[in-house]
Amino acid sequence: MKKFLKVLGLTGFILISYLGFTNYPKLDLISGFSAKSVASGHFIDNRPQKLIENGDNDIDMIDLATNTIVENGKFATASVYGFKERKAIYRKGLGVTLIDSDFDETKPYEVPKRTAVSNNLAFPYGNKEPKDTVFSNVDYAKLNSVVANAFDVEGKKDKRTRSLLVIYKDKIIAEKYDRDFNKDSKILGWSMTKSITSAMFGVLQKQGKYDIYKPAPVAEWKNDSRKSITTNDLLHMNSGLEWEENYSTICDATKMLFMSEDMSRAQLEKPAAFKPDTHWNYSSGTTNLLSGILRQQFKTHQEYLDFWYSALIDKIGMNSMVIETDMAGNYVGSSYGWATTRDWSKFGLLYLHKGNWNGEQILEESWVKYSAKPTNTSKGEYGAQFWLNAGGRFPDVPREMYFCSGFQGQMVAIIQSNDLVIVRMGLKEDPEFDFNGMLSGIIATIKK
Fold this sequence. Notes:
Strand order of the largest sheet: 6-5-15-14-13-12
Oligomer: single chain
């Protein structure tokens, strides 16, 4: 019996040691994700810590972290059983940044200049409440039923929708929020931010200041095979550069988001694995490289910070939006855009109206078409930092639909033929959440 217990004890020790050895490197990522999530949710959207932990952080392994919010210091920390403590700081105008021990918190920093909409117009072209509009061709009873069905019933967590907004002909025809959320709640769009980054290049192109078809302006690529990669290839995720994006493990994407000082360099430093425009590969690193390329187009960092808001975000009244920065001051264009559900819908409306916002052409119509055109080798699933339904991902939804998409099921769907923009924010994504049923169900309630 003693011998058996010794063997059992030794086996247990070996098992615990093995698990500790293999999982210890993940602790940096776990505590980093948790600290960043808690700080952003609390300081950007005023969420209580418990709501964040039971919602945003209710993810396998992430829920192991112990979090602390320091109100006066405007930061949050997280660790796993006391190991690998990480810190995320809030700075007004820049949102939250996950920092390392070398980051100088006393160093002065610049913030974007913002201009809020100050007209007397109702949503979406102003900030006044929209007037009630009833369309005779909309079956509101069925519409409200479809919308309600997208949310959890009491005691369940199988759908986890936080908000659902349906806009038809510029009018809100359905809007619903889960408990603890409302029209003023700022919600992280995750990779929907990629579509914002793409739009910034569209603005530059309209201004005649950038040609996406020329080789990308990356000095480190000039003397090797990467010199032929264009910005068009980058926008299409078709550069041929090495990249691994797998959020269930330590990969290029997780190391970039939770360990990099300058996220714009993560993809830049990768070697070529394929020739450009021959191999589609989804990469958040590519989008942050694009953010870094945008930075190069301005003489000062202040101009870069202002440009995103003055040229697009605030211009279309997305005044709630905050795009967070990395330690080097770059916008994390791949992942860290926050806004209310209504403000996310304004971005969709800009594209629905072919780049025109209440009479002002912000993006060329050709840019909008370009954004929704299938990328070579993507099987009809991807455009220029937008996802597409051209390949039939959602079989009962028009193939022309294209959409912004983010981790855990964030979506801004643009359906031109139905004059619809549909925004869903939540914590479950396809296929766990039935996007096909939700979208097709909404469309079916509107008679043409």
